Amino acid sequence: MTGTLSEKVAVITGAGSGMGRAASLLFAQEGAKVVAVDYVGETAEETVQRIHSQGGGAVAVTADVSHWEDVSRAVETAVQHFGRLDIMINNAGVFDGFKPCLETDEAWWDRIININLKGVFLGCKRAIQQFLAQGGGGIIVNTASVAGLGGMAGGTAYTASKHGVVGLTKQIACEYASQGIRVNAVCPGGIETGMTKDLMADPQTNQVIQQTTPMGRWGKPEEIAQAMLYLASDASGYVTGETLRVDGGWRAK
Ligand SMILES: NC(=O)c1ccc[n+]([C@@H]2O[C@H](COP(=O)([O-])OP(=O)(O)OC[C@H]3O[C@@H](n4cnc5c(N)ncnc54)[C@H](O)[C@@H]3O)[C@@H](O)[C@H]2O)c1
Fold first, then answer.
1. Domains present along the chain, CATH in parentheses
2. Largest CB tally within 10 Å, which of 12, 147, 217, 230?
């Protein structure tokens, strides 16, 4: 397939649902070979089947992003199947159900931080190892959140984890810019995915989120995938350490 990402190889985590699946389908349409990673293996397989049925190239990996060996296996799969790694999308994440500080016990804190923040750190580190082994150059896109830019959205652990992702993105961008590696983050607002289906099903929460979003609606995973595509392509060639809000204006207020 030809397209914006022709000849590129991308590892995408959280590829079995929501934004990760939307990005996997879009990147494959744009010519990338995709390694679809999810800890729910069947969903990653389904994403791969969809890519194959649209004529693209992809392979599924069942992996937990909070474990180094799993993240490493995902990158090694990219190299074994497609010869290299060009793009790492650290997107897998879990929500904390808006739990405030006093309802956040240590186990809950550890779970959210391990997946949302440590998982992104491991993904960045393993991708950079591979980029440097290839001679430098490479692109990382991390999924943060509007909850990474201020309080209120999300709960204590989620908001802390996403602020961590924003800081990590800026720091690693500075550390590896001279080796041609760009690192950016997307900050979605309220997006219609598996993560938010319960929030959308609750009439009061649904109404509050729509009313507090200037554009007055939830975003679609495909709209986040387009932002990821921009950050993963040469169109953003001079952009690094940036956090791109895609939130219907939610944080513009
Ligand atoms: N939906 C929103 O409104 C919203 C807003 C801001 C940020 N985000 C972030 O966007 C990202 C994608 O979320 P989504 O909304 O598409 O949710 P989703 O639940 O639809 O998809 C997330 C996927 O990540 C996978 N996953 C979770 N933990 C994993 C782990 N440890 N290892 C591997 N895979 C794992 C899940 O199985 C799932 O397939 C997350 O980082 C989330 O925090 C979502």
1. 9-252 (3.40.50.720)
2. 12
